Amino acid sequence: MLKTFTKAALASSLLISLGGAASAAEQLQALAKDSANWAMPTGNYANWRYSELDKINKDNVSKMVPAWSFSTGVLRGHEGNPLVIGDTMYVHTPFPNIVYALDIKNDGVIKWKYEPKQDPNVIPVMCCDTVNRGVAYAPADGDRPAMVILDQADTTLVALNAETGEVIWSVKNGDASKGETGTMAPAVINDKVLVGISGGEFGVRGRMTAYNLADGKEAWKAYSTGPDKDMLIDPEKTTELGKPVGADSSLKTWEGDQWQIGGGATWGWISYDPELNLVYYGTGNPSTWNPAQRPGDNKWSMTINARDADTGEAKWVYQMTPHDEWDYDGVNEMILADVSVDGKDHKALVHFDRNGFAYTLDRETGELLVAEKYDPAVNWATKVDMDKSSKTYGRPLVVDQYSTENNGEDVNTTGICPAALGTKDQQPAAYSPDTKLFYVPTNHVCMDYEPFRVAYTAGQPYVGATLSMYPAPNSHGGMGNFIAWDAGTGKIVWSLPEQFSVWSGALATKGGIVFYGTLEGYLKAVDAKTGEELYRYKTPSGIIGNVMTYENDGKQMVGILSGIGGWAGIGLAAGLTDPNAGLGAVGGYASLSKYTALGGQLTVFTVPDQTASK
């Protein structure tokens, strides 16, 4: 069979032929560096969501038109984005988690289709729609063919032959009968694939697991809570804010054996620094949502983790929201970039947390450099204490008025900002090395929150709170903003108000533009420096997917999945009408039904006559 090679694929093949020394990881990095591809879920290991392509740019993006489209055949929320390797695009869907391989040389003709047979009983234990955030690609290595790796809703991690779609290996990563589900995009790192677990609303015990690419066997597993050995924490070597965490750091912060059902799910994005050989990811909310039932800091939920990619051993951790009282999951992406803070350059990690604070840390040491609100409406805490001599250093200073524990069980605490879905949920931000700015989709939403006592039963919701959501008061009246952020100073550079939350992942490009989608279904392009809107197009359904770009026959293409759903669109996706349903989101986003309807579609755009930006 004649195969078309990208420049990066050709370079990888030459490396192999010259010495056989190119590992799968080296090949994957080479593929990612070739902007003709979109080889990783977030574009590169640093989670930049940035492309060097500039044939679509701020001078000609206004002429962008749809080139072709593809219906996925599924009507729930479409999060994540396709991958493109050479001439093939790999597209995923929500449950039942179909994977398509499409021929981009032929307007998306289907090369193969994989449709797993899953028990539909997994659907009721999926918290916030039946979403899936994408597949990973593993280049061929020795006798093993290239693979596409999918994390199915029922927690089956499956490796598919990238050429044929045939199953090479599969492994069960969890137990759906206990509320454990799979929604995240796996990450291929070195000779392993890393995957987490969803189910924080069912009292799961969160963890990150690495499986060998060769055969799917478990390589290491790091729990979010429990004994040090289970968490792969060395009490003397693992640090938080520069100090050893000490023995039993998690056990001491839970009552009895609550840590066994303590949450800390790991369904977000993973980044990787090859030079440090460290992987970074966040852990989610503690279970239950009623804070009175779980006294203590509940470590290590709500935590940024830096771990050795080969062994899983934790180098450093940082808990952003100790004893979470608001469901401010800490799973959002970690973006790795060089950032100057107070005149000093750092190999930094930048994280936009659900709790409304944007954090800049030194990714090698875990030193906290910046922690500032990235939405002025945030009110549950006044600030993060940055005084290194203070007993509360690194902790948010909570306002009693908005503390659900302070106000007590069965008391409705009102006016908390942000709402439980956070100032930003999992929808990933982008970073441009050209402007040194971060482009962040945000929620401008507040809530009322009433905790109540709840008992744990395996496989049943373990929430214990009633919520309602609404736009931030005394503001622009909408529920979202798209912002540009300076991570060195902790300040908003520009902000675009949106009628609804921006639930789409962003894309920055060398062409001086940033793309994002809206819940009404618009794909938008704005000037990276000023935020000026340059283009918009209404796709068939609301966008909660992430914008990506690639090159085909010398032309830059832009792709986006549309299909309303996710937490913000759960009312439409699941046909819910009770305002308190969907953990409070149904009422908050009730008017969304006037602007869009269900659908599942990939739309690919291009500019007919392209020239690189000057």
TrEMBL record:
SUPFAM superfamilies: Quinoprotein alcohol dehydrogenase-like. Keywords: Metal-binding, Oxidoreductase, PQQ, Signal. InterPro entries: PQQ_b-propeller_rpt (IPR018391), PQQ_MeOH/EtOH_DH (IPR017512), PQQ_rpt_dom (IPR002372), Quinoprotein_ADH-like_sf (IPR011047), Quinoprotein_DH_CS (IPR001479). Its cofactor is pyrroloquinoline quinone. Pfam families: PQQ. Residues 1-24 form the signal peptide. CDD domains: PQQ_MDH. Residues 38-375, 502-558 form the Pyrrolo-quinoline quinone repeat domain. Belongs to the bacterial PQQ dehydrogenase family. This is Methanol/ethanol family PQQ-dependent dehydrogenase.
